[in-house]
Specification:
The chain folds into 2 domains: about 350 residues, ABC transporter transmembrane region fold (Up-down Bundle); about 140 residues, Rossmann fold. By secondary structure, it is an alpha/beta fold. β1 and β2 form a beta hairpin. About 35% of the residues are buried. It has a 6-stranded mixed β-sheet with strand order 6-7-8-3-9-10, with helices on both faces. It has a 4-stranded antiparallel β-sheet with strand order 2-1-4-5, with helices on one face.
Length: about 625
Amino acid sequence: MASTEDTPFDQYRADVDRPLLRLFREYGLPRLRWFVAGNLANLVGRGASLLPPLVLGTAIDAIFIGDGTYGLPLVPETWFPTGQVEQFWLSVGLILGGFLLTAAGTFLWGVTMNRFAHGVMHAVRTDTFAAMQALDMAFFDDKQTGEVMSVLNNDASNLETFLDDALSEGLRIVVMILGIAGILIHLNRQLAAVTLVLVPAMGLFTWWFMRQVEPLYKQVRSDVGSLNTRLENALSGVELVKTTGTEDYETGRVREASNDLYESNMAVLTLSYFYRPGMELLAGLSFAATFIVGGLWLFQGPPLGLSGELSVGEFVTFVFLTQRFVEPLSQASNIVDWYENAKASGERVFGLMDVPPHVVEADDADSLSGVDGRVEYDDVTFGYDEEPVLRDVDFEVAPGETVGLVGPTGAGKSTVMKLLMRLYDVDEGAIRIDGTDVRDVTIPSLRSAIGYVSQDPFLFDGTIAENIRYGQFDASDEAVRDAARAAEAHEFIADLPEGYDTRVGERGVKLSGGQRQRLAIARVVLQDPAVLVLDEATSSVDTETEVLIQRSMDAVSADRTTFVIAHRLSTVKDADTILVLEDGAVVERGTHDELLTVDGLYATLWRVQAGEIEALPDRFLESV
């Protein structure tokens, strides 16, 4: 079976204590009225279902055989008629009334308990998603999408099943066992002892089963997450799979993950199908013992040292109620299954909820407003793990300036900008906007002041207008069109059959890379931020598209503090300042002409891209 990696998510999951009690306390109590109403209806319905066999036994003795008085437990005898005809019709009414109450109780139980359970599931799923949204990027660097999807969907559904079915069925079993046991003891204590003698054995058998099946269910939930991750990765990378001809390889990996889930499921099912027949056998033995002892008692007298009399009506009631006793006990295995499955899922759900975000607002954080755009990095050091990625990064940008960040792959260029937006927090040093530490302002106000265009912009499966408007949801149609014009996108949008109402497909697959890039720029134009970050926005497009995108970026960056992360140095040669990063440190800074004069790493990279030299000198190869 697949092993679970030791990640922060898994560590918090292991610390979850009594997840189902926590589920009821945090999400069930606010909906307690539905829970109480549902269980009262269940109690009435199940209790009423015991009335027909009890009335039948009484009617047999009092009406048909004439060997007893007409009476029911807890009801005074003076309440009942004395004539046989009246007793007969009363019996008919009571039996029909029992069936009607059972039907009504079952209907009310279904409506109220489903409202309770589905309401809890809705709240759990949305709260879990909100908790996940609040986490910083470090969590998503570590966890895979498929596993998180498994928590939000499969695990939340398992909790709903537990609340909807397991709790109600558990109450049903309790009502049936206690109710039947009470009636049987009232009718004949000695025969009731025969019927109930195996109940302790059933309890011990159930306890053993729960001990054995709990770790198996945990493995099942882990394997479900692993399979979902594998499927999500394969579907997201389907273009790479097809272009590399690796369909068989990916099918093999899915087959391996699916087999792990198959094996863990079979382990659970094998144990369950040992437990279920075992419970049914014990319950059947209880019924057989009741039938044998009661039958011998009727035509031979009290067997096995028993004493007293047993009427035919009492025997019939015992047979009917013992059969009712067998059925709920045989369903106990389902409740155990639901419970263990929900317990494993509850640990995963609350484990995700309990992961604390590392990027949090200060209690006294102020909103960042009226931003001029002065940005300062003060000896910033940062690492994703123990090894620093940035070391003592220090620079200052005046409002309205454009700064280019260049350097070999892995030098830390994108990381510098992610720290500005507080996708991560610095380990040492500080980053300030207009003299205020970014850790001292509210996160939404900080990020609304910064517009970000990535190398591979994300588009949602919706219309072009919806994607441009994303984040500025109240923007007018005219504002959307103005933003598209500024981003050099209006012309190609107008040529589409449905214009701004054209759906872009998942991740914008119906558009070219340059078109997606210009929509991302339009989205930032509509945002109108004081600070703009362009992360290699033209690195993967053709020359003609690059010219269009570069022209739109020049228009958007006017009068804004702009950071341009560039692979193509031609896109930053006109920047006010160029920062050259190598191994997480700023090794050169200046204008394009100044850096060429220095004849360092920047000048060498420029000559390579200009074709003046074929490759980097050996002294630069290690950093690349």
